[in-house]
Amino acid sequence: MFQSSHAQTHRGTVRKINEDAFLERPTQGIWVVADGMGGHAAGDVASQLVIDTILKKIEYLSPDQINTTVLVQSLKESNAILQQMSKTQFAGKVAGSTVVILWIKDEHYHLLWVGDSRGYLLRHGVLQQVTKDHSQVNDMIDEGVILAEDAERHPLANVITRAVGVDTELNVDIKSDRLVLGDVFLLCSDGLNKEVSDKEIEKVLQPGNIIDAGMALMHASLVRNARDNVTCILVKNKNDVEHLVDGNNSDATIPLFI
């Protein structure tokens, strides 16, 4: 099987700089979205450092040499560097970033994440959020304090409980499972899911053309005056025939939400 991907990022309509960063390494089966923490020191520096550290770690590795241990170690190295930068360059202010990584190898996928950047999977037409936000409201949902549908509007909606660079120890969550032909993955910063609902994302992804779908998701975010930076990567698991004769879904209609 073969994975094709499409990635894009935008600073949105409110923020003056883009604190998001991403990485595409399809030949190594690696895709990453990092979101610098808004309101903290040098969020753009933090997210790019996470990306650069991962790239430095894997750049010269063959696909067989990459594993979850290597990826976790790269995040822990980023965490240590950002902790040091906080002390020496940012007067003790936190420079942090959330991150979500998709790694695909040998008919399996692996999602690794810290914070509230998300990893979704569309399988057989049904979208599911595979990652689980490390956030205050998500903890409150788990404890039964609030309902899931009230989370986005809650005053603590922007409070995350885990990020690279914040604490001395970094815990990375990992979800692994078998890959299925036709699977479509979406990695995104929270600037996308703040503006576009999961149901809307599911509808946009149905036709299967990831370039058109990615453009539609970005358009939907921006016409709703994207309050945050928006980054998304779409990855589709194809067979060899689809790869050679791509565009078989190019005439399918992609819905736009305004």
List keywords for this structure.
alpha+beta; Phosphatase 2c, domain 1
CATH homolog superfamily: PPM-type phosphatase domain
Give the oligomer, counting copies of the same chain as homo and different chains as hetero. Answer: single chain
Mean pLDDT: 89
Bulk shape: globular
Describe this entry's structure for a reader.
The chain has 258 residues and is of the alpha+beta class. It has one domain (2-244): PPM-type phosphatase domain (Phosphatase 2c, domain 1), CATH 3.60.40. Helices cover 29% and strands 26% of the residues. It has seven helices and ten strands. Strands 1-10-9-6-7 form a five-stranded antiparallel β-sheet. Strands 2-3-4-5-8 form a five-stranded antiparallel β-sheet, with helices on one face. Strand 6 (118-123) and strand 7 form a beta hairpin. Helix 1 runs antiparallel to helix 2. The chain is globular, with a radius of gyration of 18 Å. Residues 247-251 have low confidence and may be disordered.
Question: Summarize this, please?
Answer:
The protein is an alpha+beta fold and 258 residues long. It is built from seven helices and ten strands.
Question: Which secondary structure elements does this structure contain, and how are they paired or packed?
Answer:
Blueprint: E1 2-10, E2 20-25, E3 30-36, H1 43-58, H2 68-88, E4 97-105, E5 108-114, E6 118-123, E7 126-129, H3 136-142, E8 173-178, E9 184-188, H4 190-193, H5 198-205, H6 210-223, E10 230-238, H7 240-244
Antiparallel strand pairs: 1-10, 2-3, 3-4, 4-5, 5-8, 6-7, 6-9, 9-10
Helix pairs in contact: 1-2
